[in-house]
Amino acid sequence: MALMITDECINCDVCEPECPNNAIAMGAEYYEIDPGKCTECVGHHEEPQCVALCPVACIPVNPQHVETREMLMQKYLRLTATA
């Protein structure tokens, strides 16, 4: 499942540089996660780095983007494939 950032985000800038897939960017009011790029760090780390570092715990699973670990690994492989 892709993750999402809720409106409880305080824009602390901790998550964005830690995302190995560059899935996190500043939105209109707070950071947002692109579900097409989010692999929950599968293929990179044992746990999602944004969740581990978030000081306000505002990064839950996005219920609109349900994916298995295998699906996340396939997304990781697509994102990291060289053209």
UniProtKB/TrEMBL annotation:
GO molecular function terms here?
4 iron, 4 sulfur cluster binding; metal ion binding
- Note the coiled coil stretches, chain numbering: none
**InterPro entries from the entry?**
4Fe4S_Fe-S-bd (IPR017896), 4Fe4S_Fe_S_CS (IPR017900), PSI_iron-sulfur_center (IPR050157), YfhL-like (IPR047927)
**What does this protein need as cofactor?**
[4Fe-4S] cluster
Keyword annotations from UniProtKB, A to Z? 4Fe-4S, Electron transport, Iron, Iron-sulfur, Metal-binding, Transport
Pfam families in the record: Fer4_7 (PF12838)
Biological source species: Roseateles asaccharophilus
GO cellular component annotations of the record: cytoplasm
Q: What is the lineage of its organism?
A: Bacteria, Pseudomonadati, Pseudomonadota, Betaproteobacteria, Burkholderiales
Its protein name is 4Fe-4S binding protein
Annotated ranges, domain 4Fe-4S ferredoxin-type = 1-29, 30-64
